[in-house]
Amino acid sequence: MKCLMNEHGRHHVRPVEDVLNRLKIRRDGYVNVDIEKVSQLGIRWMEKDNDHRDSGWYAKIDGRDLKLSNQAVNSVSKMVKVTDMRYWNQFADKNAFPKTLSHILENTPSQSSVDRAEPKRLMIRHDGIQVRAILPYEYKVKDAYDLLSDFLTMVSESMGKINGVSSLETGDSGDINSYRVVVGTNIVPALKADMGQYMMFMLACSETGANVYGGSSAATALGLFRTSCTNSAIRETQVVKWNHRSNGLDRFITETGEKLRHTGYYQDQYASIFGELLKEKLGEANPRDLLHAMRSMSLISTAHSEACERYVDAPTEDGRPVETQYDMFNVMTRGAQDLSSLAQRQQAESRALNMFTSPGGIYKMLRSGSRALDN
């Protein structure tokens, strides 16, 4: 299958230094401000005018009007137990939003307070242009630059030479991130190096608490990466998670380090499995029929199935039709790139690797009956 790049080219594998330099600039541009109560921000809806480039909610910080980004609305809505963006269209009076915030948050004590009359303290995160997040005072910010820097050292010590990093970023300012660190050499000798499979370490994170993997705001996992078309696959049983509201950062780092120390085993395991998948023909099964079966048995989502259908008729890199289990695996991981959210993509990448590398492979799963999707 000929692999196509994302139109924005964001998924190329780039030198570690380039990725870290960009993240450091972003980190250094953020300011965290503690406030006693939300009403101090003077949040109100402003229509676009000479002083405001866009319509939206604005907060007064250090004498300046800063617009609340979508992610800021999302983050503060979590604290009042309302689904983020519904506020945009829910009220004819847009100032009902800040009134609701003040009513709820100024009557909710902080975790450290025993006095219910004390307002909930908050932390405001901004870049001088927009408010990027409104967070609980006890929230533990760990910037993507700091997290990735820490883990790159661990990865190189456990997995060897780092070839580069593929960055997937979504949200107003790239707040929701998935960094795929590509390591070592091609693990499948039967494939040319430029078309092979490489071990990958994934760090998914959000600095402002967005869910990036299974309800968590930070997660790490091992997986595979195909540099010729940036297809990724995630080993779902190797995911380690952390939420910024907990004190579990040390545990998160320790458990990730333990997983990384076992990569030699998984590298040998996948080398053997993919050597077999290269030779395993699909037989009488038509790729489209196989997709339909996966979908009807709830092995993959409808959206993933529809995305994969765009690639089942595309030739492989050596001009063949999709005819082996390895070809089908590449269809599944390529289709995952077209899903609408990072969470959907990561789930699809996990399912693809699980289906094709479990004992007995995809056909045993189909014979065993359906496996319910997580969502």
Q: What does this protein structure show overall?
A:
The chain is α+β, with helices and mostly antiparallel strands. It folds into 2 domains: 31-136, no CATH class; 143-368, no CATH class. Helices cover 35% and strands 19% of the residues. The chain contains 12 helices and 12 strands. It has helices at 16-28, 70-79, 87-90, 96-105, 144-159, 249-260, 263-277, 287-296, 302-308, 325-336, 342-357, 361-368, and strands at 31-35, 44-46, 56-61, 64-68, 122-126, 130-136, 162-170, 176-183, 198-206, 218-226, 231-234, 240-242. The strands form 2 sheets. It has a 6-stranded mixed beta sheet. Strands 7, 8, 9, 10, 11 and 12 form a 6-stranded antiparallel beta sheet that branches. A hairpin with a 3-residue loop joins strand 5 (122-126) and strand 6. The chain is elongated. It starts with 15 loop residues before the first helix and ends in a 7-residue tail after the last helix. The model is unreliable at 1-10 and 370-375 (pLDDT under 50).
